[in-house]
Amino acid sequence: MEKQHFGIVGLGVMGENLALNIESHGFSVVGYDTDAKKVENFKNRTNGKKVVAAKSVADFLQTLDVPRRILMMVPAGKAVDAVIGDLRPHLTSGDVLIDGGNTFFADTDRRLKALEGSGILYVGTGVSGGEEGALRGPSIMPGGNPDAWPVVKPILQSIAARTEDGWPCCEWVGNGGAGHFVKMVHNGIEYADMQMICEAHFLMERVLGATPEEESAIFAEWNKGELNSYLIEITADILKKKDPDTGKPLVHVILDTAEQKGTGKWTSTVALDLGIPAQTIADAVFARMLSALKKERVAASAVLKGPAVKFTGDKKEFLEMIRKALFCSKICSYAQGFQLLRAANVEYKWNLNFGTISRTQPWPTCCSIHTSQMSSLHINRHGEKL
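Below the sequence we write its predicted structure tokens.
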């Protein structure tokens, strides 16, 4: 049986796309999932490529070249521990096991300690860029056992996104849970970035009376300058979209509730623990929590009426003030994130290289935005102002 270079456990969209990305860079892949339907879908999607779909853990492990390089793309928490429990008895010294999910960094530390003395090289890595990034080039933040890095470096750097000067958006972050910590802060900054974009939208709509189509043109123009980022780009795209059923702007129809995966909350909690004032990130988390209080907000809107706003100033000047405020707020958010990284570096003795971290990551520019965030917590499904 021909051996495969790389294994992936967890064949959701992220796992599938990463497999295709890895294969397109000259490395053969074997994938496995406990869900037989996902295995079959994976097999169909990768037909004709140097990719194998395994039907069992034993089949998966036997297909891998030694030392085995295994990436787990499963939900953070118990699922990761379950996969480790299934694989560990069959792994040998020198095998590399990578957790690519949004795992809390302390859990990565715990798993590293549990594997000490086993010879298994454990890595906790952030993977940023969403489904599209997984397929075409994500930002990757590996940390954990440093002995693992030479084994996986050629593959991970080959599939990563590239900076304009060709530098791979993947470099070793540090020992322990450093990789997942950097990804956590990355996501926290993203939370703040999205909330600030929402507030810019709110000011344009409520103070200047701009339509979503007009806002789209404004954001598109901003994306040509110092605010250039993927988030600004897709904000402009979202504001142009119409609801196919009503013909109304999509942003006036979608439900104004934003979900969260926990990383923004973790960032805020850790900032409190380390005594770092990351209020921009924390306020963005609170805004998402506020959006979940749908019934309370609807009831309050029937009783509490805000003042009517009639703008009489220079709209062009005010728009420039919004743009500058957004840019300044982004700088504050990034500064707070790096302050948190600096404090964690001292606390956990990771020896982080901040220059490398900033250079190898597009930061929130490579992340996706929920269209529900664009409601800025003020518009419900029926277009009523809350």
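The two ends are 63 Å apart (CA to CA).
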